[in-house]
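Minutes, structural biology subgroup

Action item carried over from last meeting: produce the structure token record for Ribulose-phosphate 3-epimerase (Zalerion maritima). EB confirmed the sequence was re-checked against the source entry. Recorded below for completeness.
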Amino acid sequence: APQAIIAPSILSADFAVLGPECSKTVNEHGADWLHVDIMDGHFVPNITFGAPVVGKIRSHVDKPSTPHGKGTFDCHMMIAEPKKWVRDFKKAGCDLYCFHYEAAFSDASCSPEEKSELKTSPGELIRYIHDEGLLAGIALKPDTPVDVLWDILESPIEKEKPDMVLIMTVHPGFGGQKFMASELPKVAALREKYPDLNIEVDGGLGPGTIDQAADAGANVIVAGSAVFGAKDPGEVISLLRKTVEE
Ligand code: DX5
Ligand code: ZN
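Output recorded by EB:
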């Protein structure tokens, strides 16, 4: 499997001091990426923050020197109409734009012309994200079968292939939920076919569940409450990394 990448979810950080929390998590606690959960109160039943906040906290963390390098802002877009926000997030300093498969076909709540432009297939959306100079990820909710991904991963058009797949191990919307081991066969199926793919898991991960996720083949590990709720976040981050590398 590709290298282990630990991406703490700042959803569980103290929002009143988000900038310092971000820099501390990368520079002191040794996180690789920061996982930034964007929720619109529509695609998921919760609201977090948008591009203006991402832009403000971006300056607290060094930009990655390589495409997947340390400090990558991994924006998990739990929003309807994901195409509409690519440019704003690019400007804000997002490095990896990970949209939900289930939202990629969603209509825009705007004019008919805008609607037809925003109604896009996952492959087209991935190309659009790449054309904007960002890495592209595609996420699946627990109820979506992994089979929807095969055509996308096999696309003959290189620019329409994702840089990462995210398999949700909770129903998106909130931190601190119980890990769903039922989602791991999706990870295993992906890993069997794609030894080099970045496969991210998100939801309920921590010292108690990392073994199963690593065994299934996940290499990009999101953890919110397990990292920010810990006495020693650095210790949790290195334990997660060690388990994936073993
Ligand atoms: C859930 C978010 C997750 C969340 C994970 O909708 O996508 O990234 O922050 O939190 P924990 O690790 O606490 O389950
Ligand atoms: Zn997330």
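Discussion: The chain has a mean pLDDT of 95.
Next step: EB to file the record with the rest of the batch.
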